[in-house]
Structures are given as C-alpha cells and as structure tokens.
Write a structure and sequence with these properties.
Blueprint (H helix, E strand, L loop, with lengths): L8 E6 H14 L4 E5 L1 H6 L2 H10 L4 E4 L2 H9 L5 E4 L8 H6 L3 E4 L2 H14 L3 E6 L11 H17 L2 E7 L11 H19 L6 E5 L1 H6 L7 E4 L24 E6 L2 E5 L4 E2 L5 E2 L4 E6 L16 E4 L2 E6 L7 E6 L10 E5 L9 H7 L4 H6 L7 E4 L32 H14 L8 E2 L3 E2 L5
Parallel strand pairs: 1-19, 2-3, 2-9, 3-4, 4-5, 5-6, 6-7, 7-8, 8-9
Antiparallel strand pairs: 1-10, 10-18, 11-14, 12-13, 14-17, 15-16, 15-18, 16-17, 19-20, 20-21
Helix pairs in contact: 1-3
The protein binds pyridoxal-5'-phosphate.
Length: about 450
C-alpha cells in the first residue's frame, strides 16, 4: 500500500501546459521579451519547477516580488535575468548585487542603499527605475522622477549602477477601455523619454502585465511581465476564458473522499448547521479546508466534481474538511474516490475561476493561497514527457495507463492509478516526481 500525503490532497502542476502557455504568450507579444512572473511560489504552483519550465519554453526573464524569492531562484541554480521589485530598507542589496539580480528602485532611499551595496561589493548593480504612472502603489511619483533619474545617472557615471530598465505598472489593464490605460501609457512614454534624454540607455522598457500582454499590443514595449496567464488563468473572465487566449490552466486540485455515509433527513452538516439534509441522503467528506486554501467564504457554494457530477460544499468549510451531499443515490461514490476541486475544466471539473466566483474573489487568489500542507506534484517536467504513455519508463505519469494530458484519453481514475504507480512503486520514473518545495520523491528515479 502506498502512504503519501498526496493521497489526502494534492495539487498537480502540468508543466507541459505551462510551457505551452509561455509559447502562446510569446506569440501574443512577438516583438517583446517575456518575463515569467514567479512570485509567491509561482502563484502557488511551485516556484523552481515553474521557473525552469518557463525558461525552457522561451521566457527570457523571471520576475519576483521580493529579493528573497529571487535569491531562492539563484540558490536553486537558475541563472539568467531576474528582476525583483518589492524592497524595504535594510533589504539584501549586497546579496542581490552579487547574485546578478536586476533590482527595482522606486525612490531615493533605495538608490542610496543599492549604490552603497554595489560600492562595498565592488560591482555594478543592475537597477531598473520604476515610475508610478497612475497605479498609486509602488513607483516614483512623476514629480520626483527628475531627482531619481539624476541620482541614478550620477551613480551610473560613477560605475556603481547601470540603469537596465525603466518601468511601470498598469492599474486597469483588465478593463481595456478604461481611460487610465491610455493616460498611463502616455505618461510612461514621457517619463521614459525624459530619462533617455538625461542619458539613460535601458535594455528594457516595460509596463504590461498579463491582461495588457493579452489585449493591449501598444503596451508591450520591450518586455511583457506575465504572471497569471503563465499559469493558464485568464486575468479577468470579462476579457475571455483561458482558451480564448490559447491558455490552459496548469493546476489541478484533487482530494480523496475520506468518508461516505448515509444520514437521515434533517441532519445538520458542519459547524453552525448552515446546511440541513432535506431527506435521507449520502454525505461525502472531502479532507481539505481553509488551512489548505479552500476559501471559507465559499461555504455552501464551492463546486467539486465527485462521482462524475458537480456537487456544492454543504454547510461550512472547516479548517481541514468540508462535506458534499451526494444525494440519496450517492453510494456508488466510495471512500478513496476522487474529488476534483478545480482543474483545466477539460474533463468536466470546475476551474479556479468557478471557485473565485463562489468566493467573490479572483482566480489569482484561489491558486496562490493553496496551503503549504498540499503537496505540489509536478508533471511533465521535461519536454519529452509531453507524450501520452507510449514510452513506458519515461518520466512520471506515463506508466499505468495514465489518462492525463491534452487528448482526453482515459480519465481521472486512471490518473490516480498513474500516480500510485509512479510514486509508490517507482515504476519507470527517470526524472522523478517533485512534491512540495523541491524534494524529488521518486523511489525509482
Ligand atoms: C504580479 C505582478 C505582475 C504580473 O501580473 P499578472 O496580472 O499576474 O500578469 C506584473 N508586474 C508586477 C509589478 C506585479 O507585481
């Protein structure tokens, strides 16, 4: 028997889908370089394997929020260009300079700290100046831009800094007709032109996030910074579904049903008894809760595919568990049956967007908040694994009649069997199965 936490719950990360998404995005922004944004553990998908897959598919840059995230990429052996943008005083500037990271500077305090770190390291820091063109969040105010540019140019002349980028971030790119979009683009052009007149010669000028990369070609400049779209999620359902942009969701969240039981009419279900059975029925227990990132706000609403049908969370989502009502004829569902909370939608399962709708939030938040207790199982880590089980012995998931992939062969049960074979018996895994934060746990690997 196989004992692995991933049989309670697991998030499968389809790296073949991620690579295809990166290619689709590059085709959408053909004149720009592509930065795959891998902050916050690659939006919950596992930073290092996702970063490697994005680079393999042609992403030229990686982007993170914090310097610690960027340094973790380096610690994992990932080279190339990495920009990190969320700094606070006393941050690891010296480490960042020595690790050849591109660092964002939004104010004079940050320029002073990075210049000092570069001087101490005897290196030239790669600095990207960020302007606030209207988002009202990070970035240098236009009124302060001249001072920041002058100081950065002086540091460049002194050899401590090289201005590698000029950049900004859009507030309403998911609403293409919003007047702020054109206003931000035109102010960005002005601020870039000013810095260039002052002698800055950036390698990249950039402002586009996923929605802008997908819908606003005039925003692409030299680079697009795509996050959510890399993971196959549409930045906004109003803009279109993932498939409308040639994207496919990368994460599938599954659990094993922990208990199936018949209960009488009038039985309260879960804390507070917000759900009461209308008649005699069969309940199924799904062993995931808000500690795993299942939003409590989706109590009574969140959709789950169990036994071939969509069910709704019955009553409250608890810390570790929730219940679904399988109906009076629910017994064909047994303990160990698969509950698919969300996935690509190709096999009839809900999507992260469906959970976002149920919890009044955005799909970004659904995938990003999946808890650390849920193992991430990375599938198709290498290009040659893209096949569908014809080469028995190549990589995880290709044995045991696995039915995952893009051709609709097989089904969810077959996928479960494939995982069992790959993880427990080590059958033919030459690349290994990556679970959690980077551990390779394939006995046969
Ligand atoms: C997160 C982030 C992105 C990526 O945004 P998506 O909408 O996920 O593509 C780009 N730029 C900055 C500054 C960000 O913080």
């Amino acid at each position: 028997m196989i004992h692995d936490a991933s049989f309670r719950a697991r998030a499968e990360i389809d790296l073949a889908a991620l690579r295809a998404n990166v290619r689709a995005l590059r085709a959408r922004a053909p004149r720009a370089a592509l930065m795959a944004v891998v902050k916050s553990d690659a939006y919950g998908h596992g930073m290092v394997p996702c970063a490697k897959a994005a680079l393999a598919a042609g992403a030229q840059w990686l982007g993170t929020a914090t310097p610690e995230e960027a340094l973790a990429l380096r610690a994992a052996g990932i080279g190339g260009r990495v920009l990190c943008w969320l700094w606070t005083p006393g941050g690891p500037w010296r480490e960042a300079v020595e690790a050849d990271l591109d660092v964002s500077v939004s104010g004079m305090w940050a320029l002073r700290e990075v210049t000092r770190a570069a001087a101490e390291a005897g290196r030239t820091a790669r600095v990207q100046l960020k302007a606030d063109t209207g988002l009202g969040r990070n970035g240098c105010q236009p009124a302060d831009w001249a001072e920041l540019v002058a100081a950065a140019r002086a540091a460049e002349e002194a050899g401590t800094v090289r201005i590698t980028g000029l950049w900004s971030h859009l507030a309403c790119a998911d609403d293409p007709g919003h007047p702020s979009v054109a206003a931000q683009l035109s102010l960005f052009r002005e601020l870039v032109a000013y810095a260039e007149r002052e002698g800055a010669a950036p390698e990249v000028r950039h402002i586009a996030n996923s929605p802008a990369a997908l819908t606003l070609p005039e925003s692409h400049f030299d680079l697009v910074r795509t996050g959510v779209a890399v993971y196959g999620i549409s930045p906004s359902p109003e803009l279109g579904a993932p498939a409308d942009f040639g994207l496919r969701p990368v994460m599938t969240l599954r659990a094993s049903v922990a208990l199936v039981k018949r209960v009488p009419a009038g039985h309260g279900v879960s804390y507070g008894h917000h759900y009461v059975t209308g008649g005699e029925t069969v309940l199924g227990l799904v062993p995931m809760g808000y500690a795993d990132g299942i939003p409590r706000h989706a109590s009574g609403r969140g959709p789950v595919l169990v036994g071939g049908e969509w069910r709704r969370v019955a009553g409250r989502v608890a810390m570790d568990q929730f219940v679904v009502d399988l109906g009076p004829g629910g017994e064909p569902v047994e303990e160990g049956a698969e509950a698919v909370l969300f996935g690509s939608g190709d096999r009839g399962e809900p999507t992260a967007q469906d959970w976002a709708d149920a919890a009044d939030t955005i799909a970004y938040e659904i995938v990003t908040r999946i808890g650390a207790r849920v193992p991430r199982v990375h599938l198709h880590e290498h290009e040659h694994e893209h096949g569908h089980g014809h080469d028995g012995g190549h990589g995880y998931g290709h044995d045991g009649g696995h039915g995952h992939g893009h051709d609709g062969v097989g089904g969810n049960d077959a996928m479960g069997a494939g995982i069992g074979a790959g993880m427990g018996l080590g059958a033919g895994t030459d690349e290994g199965v990556r679970v959690g934060t980077g551990a390779v746990t394939a006995p046969g690997g």
